[in-house]
Structure prediction request, 902 residues.
Amino acid sequence: MNLALRVNGRTIHADVEPETMLVDVLREHAGLTGPRVTCGVGLCGTCTVLMDEQPVSACILMAPLAQGTEITTIEGIPEDDAVVRCFDRHHAFQCGFCIPGMVLTGRAMVAEGHAADREEIREGLGGNLCRCGCYLKIIDAIEEAAQ
Amino acid sequence: MNTSTARARRDQDNNEGTGNARLRPGETSAVQGVNPRITAGIRYATDGGIPGEWHLRIIRSSVPAGRVTGFQTALLDDEIIFLTPDDVDAAGLPAFGCQIADQTVLTREPKFVGDAIAAVLAPTLAAARIAASLVEVSYERAPAVFDEMAAIAPDALLVHRSHATSESDSAYFDMRPQDGTNVCHRFRIRTAALQGRQEPNVITELDDSDTALADAFAQADVIIDEVFHTPAAAHVPMEPHATNAQWVEGRLEVVTGTQTPFNMRQDLAHIFGLAADDVRIVVPPMGGAFGAKTFIRTEAITALAARVSGRPVRCVLDRDEVFNEVTRHPSTVRIRLGAKADGTFVAKRIWAYVNTGAYADCGPGVAQKMGYAGVGPYRFEHVAVDSYCIYTNLPPGGAFRGYGAMQSVWASERAVDLLADRLGIDAVELRRQNLLREGDTFCTGEVMHDSHFEELLDDAASAVGWEKDGDRAGKGVAIMLKGMQTPSKAEARIQLLPDGRYEVQAGTADMGQGASEMLTRLAAEYLKCDVDQIVVCTPDTDRVPYDTRTTSSRSTHMMSRALADAAQDLLQHGTVGHGYVSNDGGLDPDTGQGVASSHWHQGSAAASLDVDEETGVITLRTLYASSYAGKVVNPHGADLQNEGSMILGLGSALFEELQFSDGQMTNPNLSDYNIASALDVVSISHKVMQIPGAEVHGLGETAVPPVPPAIGNAVASFGYHVTRLPMTPERVLAAAPSHEQASPPVGHIQGEEGA
Ligand code: FES
Ligand code: FES
Prediction:
């Protein structure tokens, strides 16, 4: 089927099977490498994108369901974004593979006022895994961005 | 698409090194502007690709042992290229393996569920997936063996009929395969008085009475003798293994996420009958590795497919394949520890049974490290260690953050606490009394230098408010030493570019530990210039000089010195500077004497926790680790490495375990295999211990091994004597002190009084 998706303020067209997952369309048709597949089952958060500002796991979201929404990937976030800058300042990354998903999740938490304290930030990050183990600095970064 | 032109420019720079057809080297300068790792401005091997490449899917054995008797391929489309062991034979590809030559590119005699037996190549990934699902395989099943103790039993069936040591540089010590058994390497330590005795070649029973060496314990008043277990665990790099390969005018070019570019070059050259110079390995940054991306993984089959098809080929593993590709060695470790009544350690005996699965990989090296790390940073008059690397029909075990030390430190540091209980001596004091100090001799004959065990022990103890002879309910400590790859070599080159910047050319692969940042900072320091003046080229064996590999936390230590030499050379001689360092040594496999490590990774940990009596759930109040770093190059990076190690250790301690049913992994996914999340790190704090003027020490895994025993000792302080990792609630409850018994848990110790 022919899909038209709004991604980072542009329209992306792709001719795909209806059961294609959003992450595959973003990577293979839109050339975006920020959303990444690690678990493929909605548990790790490396494929996180914002759909109308809400974090979703693009590995388990069928692409047609994203039509009519506004998708934002890390590539659509400006470098001077507060959360991005706090991640940078706190050096909240190692390999970086999970980090775009962490930033997007953190952004939504900050925007919605769900980053009031470290406890709430930890809860909010429960669906974003980082095997390098950068959690402490990631929490520091989001905590600062929320202030 | 990019909202920032600065980022777009960097993206372009980075793209050049990693994925395009010409494999031009790129630059990654990790310290200017917002780090591109945050904004997806770097390309991993899984992002890149060579234009026109086809996609490879590996067909894997569904039986743990046996023979493939046929493939039914009638349903495959004509364009699909189907590869079998016949193609491997036709190409004349020899056996390979980093330490034992026991693998083939595709096998007709699978040795574990998941072994690569065939492959399909198709123009798209979707077509390759469909093709793989259409191939039917028939097998003749054979009996299999999974447990290391069953596999070392005298009548065990043999996983491999014979043992052949590899010619690879990675086989850096003498192998001691035991013919007619599943032991592909036996490592021993025998301190002076215990050498040269008549002993059995292989000790197969966990309750062996050890008559040949029993007199070593004659002076001991108390002896602890206990068996501990560690299961297989998964590395879970977030980025899967990803390889792109092509043949260009007879040369093999491979872009792959690997920690071992030069070993990879040598091993692929061996497999394909090429000169090393005719193989090029380019290593983009990895999305995590933790040991999983070492030696040949997907590279040989991808290269073969590229050669057969005459096209570029890409192979990216699915998550369940990543789980099965390589694991942490399951291990059974028996510790016998003897002391005098005043607490002086007298003798230690270790039997380590290291389950290396179907292929040795670097299991012999892991067995060696497990052997000596289990002795711990203590003085002993007598030490005897037998560490066996044993084949079974499980997926291969390989390098894993902590490299064998975790399994034996878990056992040995738990044993120290059991001994302290028996002696009625404070567990910290007992350690202090026996610690190796500057100038003491380790069991390998090495004289200790730059040793800081006492500070590390005190630091950990004070982090949990340990008071000498005070109430230690819920508190535990552990201390450890582990070695660094020895012998090894590192070379670095620095080139002055026409625009006045310097390019650092070094083989250190970046798997998230911040290699390029480390190189940038150090080069700027040595050249006395700004970090903006430094660019670091992507590791590319065509462009960077030799380096042994990026493992065992050796790179910061070794490469920093090579780089210092290169900078010196450049400042003296103009536009190009070369630096070279090597560390020499190695251990005799039969006596364990020699040089285990040119410097020691030293670390301690402490835990303070509660155990719920009803549920067995452990709640951490404090988890602390203190790691000796010498001089720190990158303070953020040092913190991150130490925290990351602790968090991995925490998972190993409490929940990570690969499970198998008849050899088939039953939890190869992130819903059934849990790794630590942000919710698990509340209690964590740590210290990176620096000493002014000290040399740079690696820090990549120091905090992994002491964490499980620190937690285990804290749990045991309530009477729960858990001997098997992870310490799940069920295991904690099963280890509960029985009601008749008073704590401390002496009732569980099979200790016996010495002579
Ligand atoms: S890849 Fe989508 S949640 Fe893990
Ligand atoms: S930074 Fe490597 S997985 Fe999070």
Notes: The CA atoms of residues 520 and 534 of chain B lie 6 Å apart. The longest strand of chain B covers residues 345-357.
